Every structure is written in C-alpha cells, then in structure tokens.
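Entry 14. Structure prediction run on the chain below.
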Amino acid sequence: MNNKLREIRMDIGMSVSELARRANTSRQTITNIELHGQEPSGLIMLSIAKALNKDPREIFFTNDVMQGLQKQAI
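Output returned:
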C-alpha cells in the first residue's frame, strides 16, 4: 500500500516513537506501514490520522489508490 505517512510525519517533525505513542500503537507498526507497505486496519488508520491532525485520505489514499478505486467503480 502506498501512503504518505512518513512524508507527513517528517514534515511536522514527529518521531516514529511519538507517533506510535499518540496513536496508541507500536513503533514496529508505524515502521511497517511507512517502509514495508503494511496495510493498517481502519482503527489504526483513524488513530494515526488523529495523532497527525489529518484526514485519513490525505495519508493513506494516494492519487494512485484513488484512481484505482474510481476505475473499479466504473
């Protein structure tokens, strides 16, 4: 899964540890999502988005994902 998590987190100057703490998850989970494309559960997506003060779509649904969803809907 492509996402902008690392980019957004780094732009605001938040460490992996701090994001994990605020999202009530592990550093390993954050790292797996950022670097290995692990697809997070809906609950983790919402927790991360809340911790970053962002809409989940801004983080997890890149243009490629959105275009793919639109093509499936047609």
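Helices lie at 5-11, 16-23, 27-36, 42-52, 56-60, 63-73.
Filed with the rest of this week's runs.
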